[in-house]
Amino acid sequence: MNKLKNWLEILIVSTRLGFTSFGGPTAHLGYFHEEYIQRRKWMDERSYADLVALCQFLPGPASSQVGIGLGVMRGGIIGGIISFLGFTLPSIIALIIFATALQTFGIEDAGWIEGLKIVAVVVVAHAILGMAKNLTPDIKRKTIALFALVVTLLWQTAFTQIGVILIAGFIGYLLYRQEVKRGEKTNVTLFPVSKRLGYFCLTLFFGLLFFLPILSSNSSSQWVTMFDSFYRSGSLVFGGGHVVLPLLEQEFVPTGWLSKEEFLAGYGAAQAVPGPLFTFATYIGAVTAGWKGGLFATFAVFLPAFLLILGTLPFWDMLRNNPKIKGALMGVNASVVGILLSALYHPIWTSSIHETIDFILVAILFSMLVYWKLPPWIVVLSGAIAGLLFL
Description:
Number of strands: 0
Largest sheet: none
Number of helices: 16
Radius of gyration: 20 Å
Order of helices and strands: HHHHHHHHHHHHHHHH
C-alpha cells in the first residue's frame, strides 16, 4: 500500500512538472530541486547534488536522468519509470500532434514555421554561450572545442562526431590527469540499486550500442534502422538535449527520411513545449512513421538514459573519485562546445538565415532571451508570430 501511495505521488508531481517545466535542462534541475528537495524532502541536499553530478557525468538527457533517479530513490525502478512518463508525456503528445499537422496540412513553408527555425538559431546560440563559459574556461579546452568545430564541419558524418568525442576524451585525460587532485574525495551515497542489476544494465547498454549497427546494416527493416539511429544518438550525447541536434540531423536529413525544413521546424517547435528536449526524437519518429513511429523513437532515444542511470548508480562513488575519468570528461565536455558551434552554422544558420530581416529577428529574439530574460515560451511564441507577419 505504501508503494502504491508513493507511485501515485510520483505520477502526480512529475506530470505537473511535465506540463510546466519550460527552459531547458538547467531550469528543469531548478524545478526538481524546488519541488522534490525543498518542498517534499524526498532527498537531502547532498544526495541531490550527487545525483545531479552523476547525470552530468553520463551521456544522455541530464534532467531526464535526474528525474528517473529521483523516482528510483522514492519508489524503486517502477517509481523511476513513472517519474519519466509523467515528466515526458506532455511534450511527447504535443510533438506528435505537431508532426501530424505538418504532414497533413503541408505547413512546413508557412511563415510561422520559418519563425520557429529562427528561434532554433537563437536557442542554440544561447546554449553555446552558457556551455562555453562553464566547459571551456581555459585555453586548452578552448583549443579542444576548436578542434571539434573544424573536424565536424569538414567531415559531416555521425561517426565523425563519435570519433571527435573519443579523441577529446583521450586528450583531456592526457592534459588534466595531473591537475585533478587525487586526494580529493567526495561523500558516499547509498542508492537502492544492486550491483548485479547495474552490471546487467551496463552490459545491455554496450551490447545494443555495438550490435544494433551490425543488425541495421544487414536488415531492410525501417524499424530496425530507426531503432539503431535513435538509440545511438541517445547513447552518445554529452552535454544535454541541444547536442542531440547534430547527431539526429546527420542520421535522418542526408538519408532523406525528412527534409531540412521539417527538421528545423520540429526543432523550433520542441522549444515551445515543456519537458526534455530529447522528445525532439518523438517528432522525427512521427514525421517518418506516424504516431507509432513517434512512440517508438521516444523509447529508443531514452532507453540508453535508463540503462546508464540504473547501471551506474551502484558504482558512482568509485567513478567520480577516479582522476583519470575526471580528466577525460573535461575533454569530452569541451568537444561538446565545438560540436554545438558546428551545428549552429550547419544546418541551423545556413538553412534559416537568408535575408536581412532574418538576421534582425535573430538579434531581437536573442536579446529577449539573453538580455531581457524573458521566458523561453514567450520567445518561441514571438518568433512564430514574427514569422507569420514578416516572412
